[in-house]
Write a structure and sequence with these properties.
alpha+beta; Thiol Ester Dehydrase, Chain A
C-alpha cells in the first residue's frame, strides 16, 4: 500500500497547504465544474484517528472545510472578508460525502475543491480528498447559501458570483 505520508515536507501552518490551483489532483472533478480547482495538502494526525487506527469520519468534513477556505484564499478572500466585501454570509446547508478508502496516521492527501453549480442564492462545491498516487479517499458535494443580514437567503452578489466562477 502506498503511504503518501512518507513523502514531502512537513506543513507548519494551515496556510502552507493552500495555494495550488489545478494540477494533477484536480482532473477528476473537471467534468462537473464551473471554476478552476484549488488544491490543499493535508496530513492525518494521531488525534484525528478513531479506535480502529484510521481517520475519524468527522475529520473528512473538517478537511473539506479547509479546502473551501483555500479556494477562497486562492482568490484573495476568506470567510471573514466575504461579508465585508459582498454584504452576505455563506453558510453550509447540505453535505453529501462518500468514503472510499481508509486513511491512516501520516498519510498525506490533497483536497481538491471546485464550484460545480451556481444557482440564484446557493452554490455547490464538488470536493475530493485523494492520495498522491490519485486514489480517492473521499468525494462529495457541499452546498452553501448566501444569507443576508436578516438571516434569509439572498441572491449571490455579482462580485461573489465572479469570484466563484473563476
Amino acid at each position: 500500500m502506498h503511504r503518501a505520508g512518507r513523502h514531502g515536507a512537513r506543513l507548519h501552518s494551515p496556510e502552507a497547504s493552500c495555494g495550488r490551483q489545478g494540477g494533477r489532483f484536480a482532473y477528476a472533478l473537471q467534468s462537473r465544474a464551473v471554476s478552476k480547482p484549488s488544491v490543499a495538502e493535508v496530513e492525518a494526525r494521531s488525534y484525528e484517528l478513531d479506535p480502529y487506527g484510521h481517520l475519524n469520519n468527522a475529520v473528512y468534513v473538517n478537511w473539506l472545510e479547509h479546502g473551501r477556505l483555500c479556494f477562497l484564499r486562492d482568490r484573495g478572500h476568506t470567510y471573514a472578508s466575504v461579508p465585508e466585501t459582498f454584504g452576505v454570509h455563506v453558510v453550509v446547508v447540505r453535505q453529501d460525502l462518500q468514503y472510499k478508502a481508509q486513511v491512516r496516521l501520516g498519510d498525506r492527501l490533497f483536497v481538491t475543491s471546485r464550484i460545480a453549480r451556481l444557482g440564484r442564492t446557493s452554490f455547490t462545491f464538488a470536493q475530493e480528498i485523494a492520495f498522491g498516487d490519485g486514489r480517492v479517499a473521499s468525494s462529495g458535494e457541499v452546498t452553501m447559501v448566501c444569507v443576508g443580514k436578516d438571516g434569509a437567503a439572498a441572491p449571490i452578489p455579482p462580485g461573489l458570483r465572479s469570484l466563484l466562477d473563476s
